[in-house]
Amino acid sequence: MVQINASLRQACDYQRIADFGVELLRMYQSTSMWVAQADDAGGDDDNPK
Question: Its domain of life (predicted)?
Answer without folding.
Answer: Eukaryota
